[in-house]
Amino acid sequence: MAKPHASFVCQACGAATQRWQGRCESCGSWNTIIEEAGASGIGARAALGAQKGRIFSLANLTGAEPSAAPRITTGVAELDRVTGGGFVPGSVLLLGGEPGIGKSTLLIQACAALASGGRRVVYISGEEAVDQVRLRAQRLGLGGAPVELAAETSVEDIVATLAHGKRPSLVVIDSIQTMWTQMVESTPGTVGQVRGAAQALIRFAKTTGAVVILVGHVTKDGQIAGPRVVEHMVDAVVSFEGEGGRDLRLLRAVKNRFGPTDEIGVFEMTGRGLAEVANPSALFLSSRENASPGAAVFAGMEGTRPLLVEIQALVAPSSLGTPRRAVVGWDGARLAMVLAVLEAHGGLRLGQHDIYLSVAGGLRVGEPAADLAAAAALISSLSGVSLPSDSVFFGEIALSGAIRPVAHAAARLKEAGKLGFGRATTPQEQQDRTSGKSGAPAQDLTVATCKHISELVAEIAKGTPERTRSRRGD
Predict the structure, then answer these.
(1) Is 98 labelled as part of a ligand binding site?
(2) Which of 138, 184, 272, 322 has its CA 20 to 30 A from that of 370?
(3) Per the domain annotation, does 238 fall within a domain?
(4) Domain RecA family profile: where (predicted)?
């Protein structure tokens, strides 16, 4: 019998080469290539002469009219929001996050809620003993929930145990990097093992209709550890985020085959576990200082949810040859573009100033609608003029200095009016588009239009609005 040839596989992308090299030519990662046996990985049995596959039946596209897939709601509203209204039976979800961020706490709370409703829920831990999981549940006040626990890492044993008895509604695997399968001849945590274990669990979910949640570790740059092919194999990828020293936690959908990918769930870490935040805007603005130069409130959107956050800017004279530019919670390239527009079309001189920009509360803003709020904060800090405490801003800034309209203006204005804001600065075209439409903001909300960035600079510099128009006049 011929000796199987070894291959070298990249642990980041799964690319195989015939020899070891320090840098992967496929993904560019360094020191991620390790040696694996040639007859290992998915399809290894076929390479070793396993029996042929079975013949399965094929369905017709013109068959019965499909019905909407029923969803399993967990009772945790923020988790159901991110998943698109609950879990779809037979789906597989990959949950990633930094160590200690609260992944296990969130999943135990969701498992306890489902198990209390009469569903079979199984929690498989590959990192902790059963007693450790019990202690965590007792600290959260969930010790009486009928959740089935096990500490196991063999995928074959896990699948055989789950197939015995009543079909489980939810299975949690914590974590996928600790699982191993006999089909792959390599150590747990390698590309082949992670991919093979994930494939076996995905097959179990699709054939039984159980929902499987795979917990994944993250690398130093925030990416889920292991091969990226696992993210393509699962139905949804959810990221659990948070900053050190803050109790705020954000659950964000990166991929979702059964729902939107731009929804976020907001939680607050407490002594009794994760508490849902029903009004994130009030939380982000709770510690806001009134009448402070360099602070502007941005009326943003996260999926279908309007969200108000404070953008803070500090513009200070620099003694360095190259002034500093520091950004937290926003795109640094976007800040560079806004600074260039303010210099070219707003008449500001920012080349000899250190500039710091931060989104308060730990939220990361990615939509272009934050351009106008960031520009207002920068102008306010440079001029020393405080913006009105009851004013919000949103709008996209073009390279020509024009202020462009953005989507969901009515929802942004409605959220601002609900939280007590009395004034909003929007693009001029935005006012024409939203006037007369349903879902208009409150009658006492005054909308100031801004067509060009130079108008915003002039209004903030003199401290009194020039172009305002009340909703009552529309």
Answers:
(1) yes
(2) 322
(3) yes
(4) 68-218
- Is the separation of the CB atoms in 205 and 90 below 8 Å? yes
Same domain, residue pair 106 and 248: yes
What is the per-residue pLDDT for 262? Answer: 80
Do 30 and 110 fall into the same domain? Answer: no
- SS3 readout for the chain: CCCCCCEEEECCCCCEECCCCCECCCCCCECCEEEECCCCCCCHHHHCCCCCCCCCCCCCCCCCCCCCCCCECCCCHHHHHHCCCCECCCCEEEEEECCCCCHHHHHHHHHHHHHHCCCCEEEEECCCCHHHHHHHHHHCCCCCCCCEEEECCEHHHHHHHHCCCCCCCEEEEECHHHCECCCCCCCCCCHHHHHHHHHHHHHHHHHHCCEEEEEECECCCCCECCCCHHHHHCCEEEEEEECCCCCEEEEEEEEECCCCCCCEEEEEEECCEEEECCCHHHHHCCCCCCCCCCEEEEEEEECCEEEEEEEEEEEEECCCCCCCEEEECCCHHHHHHHHHHHHHHCCCCCCCEEEEEEECCCCCCCCHHHHHHHHHHHHHHHHCCCCCCCEEECCEECCCCEEECCCCHHHHHHHHHHCCCCEEEEEHHHHHHHCCCCCCCCCCCEEEEECEHHHHHHHHHHCCCCCEEEHHHC
Total number of domains in the chain: 3
Tell me the C-alpha distance between 288 and 253, whole Å: 28
- 266 with 395, same domain: the answer is no
Q: Looking at the structure, do residues 289 and 256 belong to the same domain, yes or no?
A: no
Residue 52 maps to a domain: no
Asked if the structure places residue 71 within a domain, the reply is: no
Do 272 and 288 belong to one domain?
no
- The mean pLDDT of the chain is 84
> Could you read off the pLDDT of 79-132 as tens digits, one per residue?
999 999 999 999 999 998 888 889 999 999 999 999 999 999 999 999 899 999
Note whether 267 and 323 are same-domain residues: no
In a domain, 58, yes or no: no
97 is in an annotated binding site: yes
CB 309 within 8 A of CB 297: yes
**Residue 100 among known ligand-binding residues:** yes
101 known member of a binding site: yes
Q: Determine whether the annotation assigns residue 127 to a binding site.
A: no
| CATH classification of the domain holding 467 | 3.30.230.10
Task: Confirm or deny that 103 is annotated as ligand binding.
Answer: yes
pLDDT tens-digit readout, 24-42 = 888 888 888 877 765 444 4
Among 261, 259, 273, 308, which residue's Cα sits nearest to residue 412?
Answer: 308
